[in-house]
Predict the structure of Polyol transporter 5.
Amino acid sequence: MAPLENNSAMAPLENNSSNEVPGPRKSRLNKYAFAAALLASTTSVLLGYDIGVMSGAIIYIKEYIHISTIEVEILVGSLNVCSLIGSLLAGKTSDWIGRRYTIVLAAATFFIGAILMGLAPSFAFLMAGRVIAGIGVGYSLMIGPVYTTELSPATSRGFLSSLPELFITIGILIGYLSNYFLASLPDHINWRIMLGLAGFPAIAIGFGVVLMPESPRWLVMKGRYDEANKILGKTSDTEEEAELRLEEMKRAASNLGCENSSHFSGKGVWKELLLRPSRPLRRILVAAIAINFFMQASGNDAVVYYSPEVFKAAGIHNKKKLFGITVIMGLSKTFFVLVSALFLDRFGRRPLLMIGTIGMVVSLVGLGLGSKFLGENDIKPTWAIVLSIIAVCADLSFFSIGLGPITWVYSSEIFPMKYRAQGSSIAVSVNRVVSGVVSMTFLTIAHKITFAGVFFILAGTMTVATIFFFIFLPETKGKTLEEIEALFEDKVSS
């Protein structure tokens, strides 16, 4: 890949970038941008909580409503499949009404779904709540990273854009803690409280978003330069930096033919993306779709959802112990996703992504070996159980270092301004479909080829992912959003 500086067409932007964040300010975190990104990213708590809490609630739902294994898979995976609807709609919606109000819509939709699930008297009622909550999740997964990416300065974009994954992980941990502390309640009440509690953070998020600014890049596409300049002034270290960032955005919008248009709504973007993309845009779309595909093909969501089933197969049957182990898993995930977020802007996307996927390959092979030994022997030795627990925690931790946070960062930052919202929605839609398919087939496949067989397949998938990332994904650390497209142009022309 040719270096960015050799692209003469982008030379002015490179010079602007060097002036944008001079010398010692590279390590400074803008407090206003951080606060806005923090609020936007809290929508991801909703998905994380559902993933974590459903792993325990499904045990009681299965016993109380008397549903089959297939119905369990449908119930668990339906939220991911239905989030496809929200993620597809979110791109167009956010281009139309703005990024901020799309976040409000996401929280409100999930709130309705959570209440329906908590009050559900039957499987059909539960499914209705899952469908509505899934649509809200789809909206939040797409809009949180896009909004944060568009608001963030280049030097801290990796950290701020990885906050959604951090909040997903925090949500998972809270869900695990809910399972642990509510498990002692009567079986006909505990799972309802577990699911219904998700409505409360949705309310807080809806009100908190009112305090957030709109995306300056969306404002530029609408021709609202004064408003964009005010926000950039608050998210930049100096007035000069804000002016340079605004000029870059205006130039990028002009090049894409969407500047100074108060009626811009993203019309025709899908057609350009899918039917007649330029060579760089095609490569960007492939990269975004691929990283989202591999994120869910890793089986991370399924491992989290069904971890109690995995540990039961390993010989651990006490529910309190099962939930205690999942809390340890949640703490491990939270710690490592925080580590990744803090070092993304220092080490870059590619190194952490490679470390994460290679670590997952090793962990999944270890988990497969442990599961194979446990599955073939009636006596469950302690060392094999410990190996399986360590391997699960390691797999989730390496995911949290690499694919977890970097997928949201990378797929939201590589699209040009005009295509970012709807391009990200396509990539996230692939993410949701694969997550749903894996979640809805995990137990069935495991029953046919054993858990060990599933984990070996996942290890092979992560090996392919590692090779793909090494060959096809360029580093984006420290580049402005307006510069990143040149990385893909250079790759094609070299």
